[in-house]
Amino acid sequence: MIAPGQARLPALRAVMEGGPLALPEDWRAVVEASAAALAARVAGGEALYGVNTGFGKLASTRIPGDQLAQLQLNLLRSHAAGTGPLLPRPVVRLILALKALSLARGASGVRPVVVEALLALLAADVLPAIPARGSVGASGDLAPLAHLSLVLIGEGEAFVGDAVLPGAEALARAGLAPLALGPKEGLALLNGTQVSTALALAALFAAEDLLATSLLAGAMSVDAARGSDTPFDARIHELRGQPGQIRVAAALRALLAGSQIRESHREGDPRVQDPYSLRCQPQVAGACLDLLAHAATVLEREANAVTDNPLVVGAEVLSGGNFHAEPVAFAADAMALALAELGAISERRIALLTDPVLSGLPAFLVREGGLNSGFMIAQVTAAALTAENRALAAPRSVDSLPTSANQEDHVSMATGAALRLHDMADNLAGILSVELLAAAQGLEFHRPLQSAPAIEAAHGLVRGVAAAWEADRVMAPDIAAVKALVERGRFARLVEWS
């Protein structure tokens, strides 16, 4: 049960991953009151934006009463102008949930049947086919939400299982009737930040798992390179006071606790300090953790917000700009920095492990070097993904372009900002997969000594899908197999947070 305005991120993640969404029964009363207040204003002959007027630059055009239903249909059809690949189904589930929760707060002037129609699609797993591109993140996510809304009225297309079917057929298979739109209901459905917010939330959930995975990979690399755990001493981090740094250092200490490899070189090691990619993990990953925590706060607020326009507040109809997704754009841009930096420091650890001068391990982590190239090109792959993420990390929120004949003259670009995070997360998963393979290989040069329990468990996960590297073979399947584990959160679950 999720109350409108009170959704928490774990509950939303559960819905995204296939769980049900149920609302407390008391939502209907406030929604009915909002719809009644709007109907009274329309009956009084008042000009209300998007209810009995045109949209955007056409807001001064008055629409006759007998054409109000057609106005909403025309809005959905004309605004369904998206392009590109279809959004992933889990993201669409989250969009449906966010839109239902927003409308159920009773400030949008829609009837309860509209909320019920969204919940019915979610319950039946009839998921609108939404092209990924076409929103600038202001006036809401108009094009993608129009594609979603078409399915409600029996048009557009929807996923039913793995098939994409015409909207009318998809509804019929689920036993659902098309929705007949009332005044403002089309506008309320497609005006809002639910697409950009859902994309950013899905990326946040992935980023949180990837950050935890990066700590496990980093700890494994420390032991593979016979690095020191002194830089993770709590006293160092308490003197700085950065909360993410303190938490990351604690997680790294826990990951390395009990390592025989660490104990074997605690005395007599000629190295005074490790390279930054090992030593400064708390400072780098901790800063990333703080960025993700801030983004989570912003996105949780946005997930609970009412972001369409105009809004019905009591008996008044107020025009404003809650559809402007600047908070989401800023959160997405911050998350991009975190994803890029986690990949950058991981790639440097891979380079360290493959360099015999820095690591003390065989060149490129393979015996009989020369005959075998080992991890030489795997490191190059990681470097390529790192470079791509650096380019993708450029901020999108500052790249406004005016739309709608300059009526909508400043936009957030939040949807593109959030969409690019998914490519970045995919790249980071690839980089971390190479590091996990390299670090697992490095550990084996220290046998029979064992690393710490969580690191050995991670080593076991790697070796469950990729054999040790004794002689050159095709590496791409190994990277793909480990990446699949990374994306399923198998390594992230081995990290204990204090």
UniProtKB/TrEMBL annotation:
Q: How is the polypeptide modified once translated?
A: Contains an active site 4-methylidene-imidazol-5-one (MIO), which is formed autocatalytically by cyclization and dehydration of residues Ala-Ser-Gly.
Q: Which family does it belong to?
A: Belongs to the PAL/histidase family.
Q: Which Pfam families match?
A: Lyase_aromatic (PF00221)
**Swiss-Prot/TrEMBL catalytic activity:** L-histidine = trans-urocanate + NH4(+)
Protein name as catalogued: Histidine ammonia-lyase
Tell me the compartments it is located in: Cytoplasm
Q: In which pathway does it act?
A: Amino-acid degradation; L-histidine degradation into L-glutamate; N-formimidoyl-L-glutamate from L-histidine: step 1/3
EC number(s) per entry: 4.3.1.3
Q: What organism is this sequence from?
A: Belnapia mucosa
The superkingdom listed in its UniProt entry is Bacteria
Where would one find the signal peptide in this protein?
Answer: none
Q: Where the protein is mainly located, per its record?
A: cytoplasm
What keywords are assigned to this protein? Cytoplasm, Histidine metabolism, Lyase
Instruction: Give cross-link positions for 5-imidazolinone (Ala-Gly).
Output: 138-140
Q: List-wise, which residues carry 2,3-didehydroalanine (Ser)?
A: 139
Gene3D superfamilies under this entry? Fumarase/aspartase (Central domain), Fumarase/aspartase (N-terminal domain)
SUPFAM superfamilies tied to this protein: L-aspartase-like
- State the Gene Ontology terms under molecular function: histidine ammonia-lyase activity
